[in-house]
Every structure is written in structure tokens, then in C-alpha cells.
Known about the structure:
This protein is of the alpha/beta class. It has helices at residues 27-33, 43-60, 74-85, 99-110, 128-138, 159-168, 217-224, 237-244, 256-272, 274-294, 321-332, 359-373; strands at residues 16-17, 66-72, 91-95, 114-118, 142-146, 148-149, 154-155, 172-176, 195-197, 209-215, 310-314, 334-335, 337-338, 347-351. It is globular, with a radius of gyration of 21 Å. It starts with 15 loop residues before the first strand and ends with a helix.
Amino acid sequence: MVEKPDVGELTPPDRTLMGPGPSEVHPRVLRAMSTPLVGHLDPSFIEIMNEVQDLLRYTFRTDNQWTIPVSGTGSAAMEAAIGNVVEPGDTMLVPTNGYFGGRMEEMATRAGGEVVHVDAPWGEPLDPADVAAAMDEHQPDVFGFVHAETSTGVLQPQVPELTDVAHDHDAIVIADTVTSLGGVELKVDEWGIDVAYSGPQKCLSCPPGAAPLTLNDRAMDKVLSREEDARSWYLDLSLLEGYWGDDRSYHHTAPITNVYALREALRLVAEEGIEDRWERHRENAGALKAGVEAMGLEMNAPDDYWLPSLNAVRVPDGVTDTDVTSYLLDQYDLEIATGLGDLEGDIFRIGCMGYSSRAETVSYLMAALGDALS
Length: 374
Ligand code: PLP
């Protein structure tokens, strides 16, 4: 006999979220999520879909018609990008300088692609000269890079140089903008990015569940002229076109509440103004960076490629990273994260994203971290 579980009312702890995501959700987004459901083909929802697409274009700085929220987390948008653009037999060039380049590799391989690498150590950005050399050597069909590497706290500079090199070699450029969209300068069209995907739970301060994706016509032409269907039915963009394109016909039931949430989160971006929002992230994270440096701690990334949305701070000698993160969670209800992969044990990862990027959260973090390290 299966016993009836004795489960109480949901009372999650009230955390201050300053890890690598999710960030704190803006109260207006939470309110939008408690509004009534309509059907995913209701005329009022079709209007909401159009609004979300317009707001996403504004936030990505793109005119791409093909700009949609993918149902699922950032990895779903990532797989929609890679799994549709990479065809069996294609070669994809991916970076080795962080955790998420590795995930690009796994997805490209599952899509039937052959993967080649452009190397840089964890904690360093890609050098356009190395990308050019790898392009000359491998002549890839697709080039992926991570604009804001959450595992290392490195912001990839010189993006237009990278896309120029890729286009000189006729490769399609896919950018991971999960930790940059809405928090760090990003100009999809001006910088020549063909495909960009993101997640809502970082600088957009929205719960995960509907993940931004944009593709220009060149990338979409490649997708729509594939010889073999994409391997995922759910993420097949030629099928999703039926729902998000002109027809608005059923493909799957959209996560209505997550689309409401994304709409409100993106409305907040537009109200603030995208440039002002980038500036706010720089200012608050700048205070955080100055504060930890004043405590004698060292940032992992040099100033030239410091990533304001994700601050990687070196763990000082004699300190165990997990002791500090547990203490902050237990004593201060404050979440920050430890390192992963090549940087496991070496860094703290302190997010300063979206609604969590405020003067008061930074002050709280500084006081709590000071106490944890004393
Ligand atoms: N890419 C980057 C740079 C990320 O930081 C993440 C998540 O942290 C992802 C991709 C995957 O997103 P998700 O965990 O929402 O599936």
C-alpha cells in the first residue's frame, strides 16, 4: 500500500540570491505569474506573444524576425540553436575556456556534428588571432563562443573581431549570451552575431522556463534547408515556426505563466532602458569588486575582461570555499557559489544580476562575506 505523504504548505526560505543564477525575481514578475491563465492560442495570448517577441528584439538589439522564447531553460534554447544549425557532417568550432563551451561540444556531437577546438585556458577569453588560425585550419561551418562565461567570470571582448573572422570563412556564429543578456553590453546585429540564445533567470531576473533565442535570416535559411530533420522534434525550429511564425498554430502548449513572467521582466528592461541597465550592472558590480579587493581578495579575471554579472573571486589561502558558502547560506540566507571544472575549489562565483544588482544587496554581501572570512 502506498501511504499518503504528509507534505506541509510550501514555505521556501527567503534567500538573497547572489550566485550564478537564478537571481532574485522582481516583485512585478512574481505578480505577473499569479495572473489567470488563458489558452496558448487565445487571441489575447497571441498578442502577448507578439509583445514578448518585440521586447526580446529590443533587449537583444536585433531586428531578427526569428526571435522567440523557447519553452524550457537556457539549455533548451542552446540545444534549439545548436541542434538546428548544426547538421550531420558539419564541423563546429567550440572554445575550451570554460564549462559551457564543453556543453556546446556535447550538443554539437549529438546533433551529428564534428567538433574542433579553439583553445584558451579557463579564466581567459578567446584571442581573435587563435580563432582565425583555427578557422584556417578546420574551415568550420559553425563557430560557437560564450559571451559571458559563468564558470570563470570572464567577458569575451572583441566580439565583432570574432564574428568578422568567422564570416570571412563563411561560418555561422552562435553566441551563448545566457549571463549577458539584459545585464552586459550586447548588440546582436551590430556585432554580426547570427544566432544568440540566453536564459531568463540571470540578468532578466525571471524564473527559468522560457528561454530567449534569436536567429538571423542567414542562420534560419540554413535551418530551413536542412536535408535531415533536426533530431529533436520538440526543439525543431522548422516546426516551431508554425507557432511563433505567421500561422500561430499548435505545436506544443506554451508555458503560459513563464511567458507572462518573461513579458514583465522584459518590460522592466525597456522601462529602465537597455544602456542604463548595463550601466547599473557595471556600477553595482563595480562596488562589489572594489569591496572585495579592499578586503584583500583578488578577482579571477583581469579588469579588461571582468564580467559584472558574475564576479569570480579567488578563494584566499587557508580558506575552504564550501565552508564559506555554507556559512553564508546558514547565517545570512545568502547564496553565492563555488567554482566548477578547472576552477573547482579556487574561486567564489558571486552573481550581481538583474534585480539582485542593487546597492543594498551588494552592501549585505560585503558585510556577510567579511564576517564569513573573519
Ligand atoms: N550557458 C551558460 C553560460 C550558463 O551559465 C548556463 C546556466 O547557468 C547555461 C548555458 C544553461 O542554462 P540552464 O541552466 O538554464 O539550462
